[in-house]
Design goal:
Blueprint (H helix, E strand, L loop, with lengths): L7 H6 L11 H11 L4 E6 L3 E6 L2 H8 L6 E2 H9 L1 H4 L3 H4 L3 H11 L1 H17 L21 E4 H17 L8 H21 L7 H8 L2 H25 L10 H8 L8 H32 L4 H15 L3 H6 L1 H13 L5 E7 L3 E2 L5 E2 L4 E5 H5 L23 H7 L24 H18 E4 L11 E3 L2 E3 L5 E6 L4
Parallel strand pairs: 2-8
Antiparallel strand pairs: 1-2, 3-5, 4-12, 5-8, 6-7, 9-12, 10-11
Length: 486
């Protein structure tokens, strides 16, 4: 057992005592990986208790491809988030929204990208990043001086609005009450899940309903979006191809929901809340991590800016253009390699006894995971792995034509050595949408702003770790000013 403490027996009966392991999680994973670089080790993780960790590409690949009747992602997620209380029990009963995200949303990315960009432009104009009223030192309007911005909080606001242009469309995505509700819900799910996990498992059925606020959020969402859902359903019942039929996630839910309870307005509202929770949280953190790197290393901005200027002049703000920005893609992959949103991946719960090829026996009821942090920070896989190298995934010295052909390891590509989006059959279904949204927003920052850290600060704002979560610094400021143009 790595990081075993004298509190283990107390943590078994009273999980609140496991909180002492939260800050040690990263250190324990590093220790376990150094002692067992291609093997298994056990670690104490809140709220799972003893968890078995797979280390090394071969074991990770085997865990990734293990059968679903042996290892369950859904059961692991339920343990950490208590979805039945924090969101809704119906999400376990039917998961029809996942193919919609994986297939329908991905197929429509090219068509919807112009709407996403339109909303992004409008969102920036309404945000703290709008300098139009500022007067620069040269007397020009819109060229204000440096402005300090708390990054993560304001990125969440941008991401919520832009994401919901594709989720529910305009004008609802511009409704401040609707956006605040979804941001609050996203934060509330995580907080309440942690609080439930402070109590022993036998008390969860009592504590969970008492702490749940899902009905409140559903009522608020019903007031904001209920009439629109009812109107769409009524029109669809008369004509499946009615005039001005929206092309967004909500419409796909209405069309593809299983017959019966899943087609009710209340059930569709649950899926909207779930989509917002899934997308806002991870996308905002990924973007914030990348912005911190831009501010820490502003010398990389000119090359990224030159690439963006060249691509957009040819392809415009399109999905094709985003795909051609290989250096931006590499920058994001490298940022996520060092700062994935979690220290572990391929999180599973053993539904039955299982023996791996090396003879390791995993008994039923065991929590199993892979050490993402150890894989991403392995010098054997990534040269000088601790160093941020923004062009790590761009072939050195390659010309533009070669870059178009050779960029096999893209931001969204997964493998046993790169697990930022997971891997295998349970890889993040919305990663292509998330990647295009992240690239578009980061590209907007690169083209329209200069960035730097506040005076006297030379190191990237330190991450904040909570158990296995890797949080960008919640209070860190970055200085922004409008890009100086000739």
């Amino acid at each position: 057992m790595i990081g075993k403490s004298s509190w283990d027996w107390l943590g078994f009966f009273f999980p609140a005592f496991d909180l002492i392991t939260l800050n040690a999680c990263r250190a324990n994973l590093i220790e376990g990986s150094s002692r067992y670089p291609s093997g298994w080790f056990r670690i104490h993780l809140f709220p799972f208790g003893t968890t078995v960790v797979a280390n090394g590409p071969e074991l990770v690949d085997e865990l990734c491809n293990a059968p679903d009747d042996a290892f369950s992602l859904a059961d692991f997620a339920e343990k950490i988030l208590h979805i039945r209380y924090t969101i809704s029990p119906t999400l376990r009963q039917s998961r029809y929204h996942i193919p919609i995200v994986r297939n329908t949303l991905t197929r429509n990315l090219g068509v919807l990208f112009s709407a996403l960009v339109d909303e992004m432009n409008a969102a920036f104009a309404d945000s703290v990043f709008n300098f139009d009223s500022d007067i620069g030192a040269n007397g020009r309007k819109g060229e204000g001086e440096w402005r300090g911005v708390v990054v993560h909080r304001n990125i969440m606001k941008l991401v919520c609005r832009v994401t919901n242009r594709v989720v529910v469309g305009a004008p609802l995505c511009r409704n401040r009450e609707y956006r605040n509700l979804n941001i609050d819900f996203t934060m509330d799910v995580a907080k309440r899940a942690v609080f439930i996990n402070l109590f022993p498992a036998f008390l969860h059925r009592l504590i969970g309903p008492l702490l749940s606020k899902t009905k409140k959020y559903q009522r608020q969402m019903r007031r904001l979006v209920g009439d629109m859902i009812e109107e769409r359903k009524a029109k669809l019942s008369k004509d499946k191809h009615y005039e001005d039929k929206p092309n967004d996630y909500l419409m796909w839910l209405i069309e593809q929901a299983p017959s019966g309870a899943e087609g009710t307005t209340e059930a569709l509202i649950v899926r909207l809340l779930q989509m917002n929770f899934s997308s806002i949280h991870a996308t905002s953190m990924t973007l914030t991590h990348a912005i911190f790197y831009l501010a820490t290393y502003p010398e990389y901005i000119p090359l990224l800016r030159a690439e963006a200027d060249a691509v957009i002049s040819e392809d415009g703000w399109t999905k094709k253009g985003m795909q051609r920005m290989r250096r931006l893609d590499s920058f994001l992959r490298e940022s996520s390699r060092i700062n994935a949103v979690t220290l572990t991946s391929l999180n599973r719960y053993a539904l039955r006894d299982y023996t791996f090829q090396d003879g390791t026996f995993i008994p039923k009821g065991t929590f199993v995971t892979a050490s993402l942090h150890s894989l991403h920070m392995n010098d054997g896989t990534y040269e000088d792995a601790e160093k941020f190298d923004p062009w790590r995934f761009v072939e050195k010295g390659a010309n533009e034509e070669v870059l178009e052909e050779s960029m096999a390891r893209q931001f969204t590509s997964t493998s046993a050595e790169y697990l930022a989006f997971g891997s295998g059959k349970h890889v993040c279904p919305g990663r292509f949408f998330a990647a295009n949204e992240i690239k578009a927003i980061l590209c907007y920052f690169i083209l329209n702003y200069d960035l730097r850290l506040p005076g006297g600060v030379t190191e990237r704002p330190p991450n904040q770790y909570f158990g296995t979560s890797v949080l960008p610094n919640q209070r860190a400021e970055v200085l922004f000013r409008p890009r100086r143009r000739a």
